[in-house]
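Q: A reviewer asked whether we had any structural model of the full assembly, not just the individual parts. We don't, so I'm hoping you can provide one. Inputs are below.
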Amino acid sequence: MKIGTIRDLLEATVICGEDMLEKEVHSACGSDMMSDVLAYVKDQAVLLTGLVNSQVIRTAEMMDMVCLVFVRGKKPTQEMIELAADSGMAILATDMRLYEACGKLYVNGLVGNGRKV
Amino acid sequence: MSESLTFHFDVDGEDFTSAGQASVQVKKNLRRLGISPEIIRQVSIAMYEGEINMVIHAGGGKADVVVSEDKIEIILVDKGPGIADIDLAMQEGFSTATDSVRSLGFGAGMGLPNMKRYTDEMTIDSVVGEGTTIKMVVNL
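A: Here is a predicted structure for the entire assembly that you could use as a starting point for your response.
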């Protein structure tokens, strides 16, 4: 799925990484607990979260993710946007809740950890 | 690479926002050395969890990453409160972190288990009231 398709499905705003909308991603995960992301995630390219602090960007960077989606209308700080841009990550923001946002992506073919839709 | 290469970092214990900077730097350095992405991920996640722990629990500390021909060692040293029961601390889900740490997305009791999960060897030396030294090895 293209990052641009994620934007459309989640009716999201692109906060940074406008040039990455054509990039293909193959899996995603959703969590507000960064420790769990670090523990259970493998080869996920997209992180959906309602947590807003710099450690979200660093966690995503450690996991080699390319796209962050902030849910529930959360907006990243300027510092976070700069960190993400430095690491070559796109940031999207949507008003949808985490469950709903993950569900929309899942039913449209963006899988989780090794499971096929 | 016949000689080892050491990267040293002082981890600031005052500022949760900047926690993880050393790990980001290590990741960049290892990438420059041409280390494989999977190994880089293992090393940087283990170090990142360790760095977060030092900031949350120990008021900061020192981190060294030693890259040699056959392995990468991560040595984390702090002068924090120490770990009273290491076996208990290694259990997934056990945490002494406060609710304020949890609201920041950490403190799930996954830090030490994650460090073990992503490395080939891990030893913890800790003295209550004096501090903790953690040594981790990722084989190349």
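A: Points you may want to mention in the reply: Chain B has a mean pLDDT of 94. Chain B has five helices and five strands.
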